[in-house]
From TrEMBL:
<dbReference type="InterPro" id="IPR050923">
    <property type="entry name" value="Cell_Proc_Reg/RNA_Proc"/>
</dbReference>
<dbReference type="InterPro" id="IPR012551">
    <property type="entry name" value="DUF1707_SHOCT-like"/>
</dbReference>
<dbReference type="InterPro" id="IPR000253">
    <property type="entry name" value="FHA_dom"/>
</dbReference>
<dbReference type="InterPro" id="IPR008984">
    <property type="entry name" value="SMAD_FHA_dom_sf"/>
</dbReference>
<dbReference type="Pfam" id="PF00498">
    <property type="entry name" value="FHA"/>
</dbReference>
<protein>
    <submittedName>
        <fullName>FHA domain-containing protein</fullName>
    </submittedName>
</protein>
<feature type="domain" description="FHA">
    <location>
        <begin position="113"/>
        <end position="162"/>
    </location>
</feature>
<keyword id="KW-0597">Phosphoprotein</keyword>
<dbReference type="Pfam" id="PF08044">
    <property type="entry name" value="DUF1707"/>
</dbReference>
Length: 186
């Protein structure tokens, strides 16, 4: 029986060492994982430190094992599907916006516009899904801010529920309970 010589390719003493290209590929997988939200900032920083000091390929493999990389075509297909599905939502929102009644934004500098069922509100909405004091619209720092005032059925802006306050502008769709409007400039 003959043993392989040190010069033969079967006896590679450098087989376990990490090349700069392998280290860079691992770092790129870590960067992508952090960008996609798969790693917290602290985990990302710690794994980067470990990747830079890794001496064996197995160490690099362990750092990226849970960050399955997607092929270029997979990313392209997924982003295309996301864009197409998002288009349907935008199309439906645009279609509905033309049908919605307009809610004129008050003149800047005026008092906050209170919205709700209570007759004392600046905008009274007589609907069962609207709270007595539902929301308020105020002009602050050059921006319009819509604030939900603890309503039962919620306030939404462009289909997203407002928790606290949200910046709005002309063209946005707002709803108070089941009553929806399209904001318009005065």
């Amino acid at each position: 029986m003959t043993l392989p010589s040190a010069a033969s390719p079967e006896y590679d003493t450098q087989a376990g060492r990490v090349s700069d290209a392998e280290r860079e590929r691992a770092l790129e997988v870590l960067r992508e994982g952090a960008a996609l939200g798969r790693l917290s900032h602290d985990t990302f920083v710690r794994r980067m430190e470990l990747a830079l000091t890794a001496r064996k390929r197995q160490e690099l493999a362990a750092l990226t094992a849970d960050l399955r990389t997607e092929h270029r075509w997979t990313r392209l297909v997924l982003s295309t599907v996301g864009a197409v599905s998002g288009f349907g939502v935008k199309l439906r929102r645009a279609w509905q916006a033309e049908k919605l009644p307009k809610l004129l934004l008050p003149a800047p500098g005026a008092y906050p516009l209170r919205i709700g069922r209570d007759p004392a509100n600046g905008l009274r909405l007589s609907h069962d899904t609207v709270s007595r004091v539902h929301a308020e619209l105020i002009h602050q720092g050059g921006l319009w801010v819509l604030r939900d005032l603890g309503s039962t059925n919620g306030t939404t802006v462009n289909g997203r529920r407002v928790t606290g306050a949200a910046v709005v502008q002309a063209g946005d769709q707002v709803s108070f309970g089941h009553m929806a409007f399209c904001l318009a400039a005065a």
